[in-house]
Specification:
about 15% strand; Arginase, Chain A; single chain; alpha/beta
Length: about 300
């Protein structure tokens, strides 16, 4: 088992140390700093640690759900995975193995990743337990290229790999793709895409996209799915993304209607000049856990 961080260094820096032990915490935070194929700005390998550090300044009390939800489930934070000498298929296998170990231990697994490639490993692990799993992808990019720069394990190909598992995919916030990806979406019964420009006028799309998901859902959040005004420090920013309110409405409704079996947050590339992205994603991570606890999913 990967060593765990002391309470003061872990997610939220929870003061009640008894809530941060492996034997008592229901939630485990997995840190997966794998970066091998970044194609614009690099630095996403620093993302998981940046989220953990920023979480120390997130308020325990969430006014939206009127509770300090961490007290109901407890959180243990693992040390970062070590990817020295592991890339592509070897890295995915290591990610799948650790995630499967955490699932088998009965923990609710939250994964903080670097490049989006890591989600393939997470989903493979969850798919072994939930055969009817579907994936909800919040993202600026389709990530459906068969390969990018010659690598089928590129961050730009992660959803193509997940589709090979015959897993239904719902995409929200897409606003950057190549013509081949657009054609694949149009011709696939397993991909349902809500482009960013389709979300501007109302919230009707929220239930419509949830309708396309199975009862068991894996949620993957690429930080660039949000507008750069919300999350500017990402590897490949695109204007016109989700607002904070849109993202929260979608995820809260998802937790009410479906079982979110696990989730990840990926693709933060921290910048020395500001902390808004890692703080916002740390707060989002805690808020999602609150939504899950509110709906008896943890």
């Amino acid at each position: 088992m990967t060593p765990v961080l002391p309470a003061e260094d872990g997610f939220l820096a929870i003061p009640e140390e008894e809530l941060t032990h492996w034997n008592t915490a229901k939630v485990v935070i997995q840190q997966v700093p794998y970066e091998h194929t970044s194609s614009y700005l690099s630095g996403s390998d620093k993302g998981p640690a940046a989220i953990i550090e920023a979480s120390h300044f997130v308020e325990f009390y969430d006014e939206e759900i009127d509770r300090e939800s961490y007290k109901d489930y407890g959180i243990v934070t693992l040390e970062e995975m070590d990817f020295r000498g592991r890339v592509n298929a070897d890295a995915i296998e290591a990610i799948e193995d650790q995630t499967s170990e955490l699932i088998d231990a009965g923990k609710y697994v939250v994964s903080l990743g670097a490049e989006h490639t890591v989600t393939y490993g997470f989903v493979r692990a969850f798919h072994k337990k939930y055969k009817d799993i579907s994936v909800l992808q919040i993202d600026a990019h389709s990530d459906l290229r068969e390969a990018y720069q010659g690598n089928p394990y590129s961050h730009a190909s992660v959803m193509a790999r997940i589709l090979e598992l015959d897993i239904p995919l719902v995409q929200v916030g897409i606003r950057a793709q190549c013509a081949e990806e657009a054609a694949l979406i149009k011709n696939s019964d397993n991909i349902h895409t809500w482009y960013a420009h389709q979300l501007w006028d109302n919230d009707d799309w929220i239930n419509a996209c949830i309708d396309k998901l199975s009862d068991h859902v894996y949620l993957t959040i690429d930080a660039d799915g949000f507008d750069p005004s919300v999350a500017p420090a990402v590897g490949t920013a695109e204007p016109g993304g989700l607002t904070w309110q849109q993202g929260c409405k979608l995820i809260r409704k998802l937790a009410e209607r479906k079982k979110i079996v696990g989730f990840d947050i990926v693709e933060i590339a921290p910048r020395k000049t500001d902390i808004i992205t890692e703080f916002t994603m740390a707060k989002l991570c805690y808020k999602i856990l609150g939504y899950l606890q509110l709906n008896n999913q943890i």
